[in-house]
Amino acid sequence: MAAFELHRQPASNTMSMRQMARPRIIILLSVALLVLGFWRLSSDWDNAQITYETDKTRLSGSSASYTPKTTKGSHSTSGWKWNADRDRSDHSLTLDQCHSAFPELYTEIDRSADYWRKFLNGKKIGPEHIDLGWSGDGGLQCMIYNQQLYITFSRGLNHFQHWKERSHGTLHQIHRAILASREPIPNIEFSIKINDRIEFTERMPKSENSTVWAFSRNMSDPITEQIWLVPDFNWWEYPRVMGSFADFQRQALELDRDGWNAKRDQLVWRGTTSFNAPLRQALINQSDSQPWSDVHKVDEDSTAGDAAKFRITMPDHCKYKYAVHTEGTTWSGRLKYLLSCHLVVVAHPLTWHTHLYHLLKHDGPNQNYVQVAGDFANLREQMEDLVANPKKGKIIADNAAATFRDKYGTPAAQTCYWRQLFHTWSKVAYEPDPYEGITGSDGKVHKQWRGMTYEQYMIWFCNVPDDSKPGDDCYHTYG
């Protein structure tokens, strides 16, 4: 018995040592895995930075020349394919994914970049070109520096509700594009005008060597080729008309569940004749008393009489098979909504161009809208043909939905456009200095960071720089 016990003792010691070693091994393995994880994370970020620098060089040409490249530091497009139901509101797509999903999105960016390379003979856009000295109210100057958005200059934006809404809706989009980016955004500075008519014409000598980001440009005014087009403010939200654009698309898709045949077999339009009166009155005259017409004048904000009777919501337009698009003071924000409705858009020849209008096709196998005469003289003929040939109308509506609602007109596509603009602009424009020299009370010049952050500007009521005085509505006693 004792011999047996003596024989087992070493085995018992061995088991005890193994049991004691086991936790140590687990701890060592955990530490090794943790170190490996940190190394992989650091390596991925380094590779992302290298990829970004490589892409910056590769993007020195037009964005059309950008070749998607999958690397360890970027989200691979291998196995990834655009899915509208899943991705329409995904604001975090990489440059590779954006170019894979929206290859025809960047036409206006390419056009502007090519224009300015030729205009400046290869030199870069400088601070003098984005200066808003030619402009009255409605202008912003912004800077993106180290992934932070700053407002360095603004005039006449926060005192007028509509302009405040427009500027904020635009800045929100830019800020979202920065925050959601999986790749670094370059340091850039630029100016934006949020007015309908931005005073950028051949009659303004001061604008001859200037450039600005704006919502539209007049195709008949050559100087507006100097403009860089951006998504307008109601891609974010349309005050008093519609909530967020993403939510509008959700409602439009829900209304389309019953299919094409469930829609009303009529042409719908609501609007005022206070803007572009000759054009809009011609529409009303040509559609008057027609069986296919649900066209009515509705004065903005009116709640009396016929105006109240005929008032409908923006999603209500999606219940029709046909809808008219008319320009207003300049471009009209209405079109983006109609193109998300799975209906046939009927429009006159457009004078104003936006960042997506190159995708409109009024003939051919990919036709996605119907173009009528500028005075709507052939509207009856066109509508009678559409009503008599419902399959033709459905094909046009299908093409429009596929091109705009489910692809280039999605919120995700707009964010891709913004980010590509940041990158392309950085190749043709100067890199900003975030500091300015300020002479202090001691007579010495001190460095001061320019502008204010986006976050501060969102609750700001004055111009930037602040020029308010005691007694002004927006006067502040704090810095």
From TrEMBL:
<protein>
    <submittedName>
        <fullName>Kdel motif-containing protein 1</fullName>
    </submittedName>
</protein>
<feature type="domain" description="Glycosyl transferase CAP10">
    <location>
        <begin position="184"/>
        <end position="432"/>
    </location>
</feature>
<feature type="compositionally biased region" description="Polar residues">
    <location>
        <begin position="59"/>
        <end position="80"/>
    </location>
</feature>
<feature type="region of interest" description="Disordered">
    <location>
        <begin position="59"/>
        <end position="81"/>
    </location>
</feature>
<dbReference type="Pfam" id="PF05686">
    <property type="entry name" value="Glyco_transf_90"/>
</dbReference>
<dbReference type="InterPro" id="IPR051091">
    <property type="entry name" value="O-Glucosyltr/Glycosyltrsf_90"/>
</dbReference>
<dbReference type="InterPro" id="IPR006598">
    <property type="entry name" value="CAP10"/>
</dbReference>
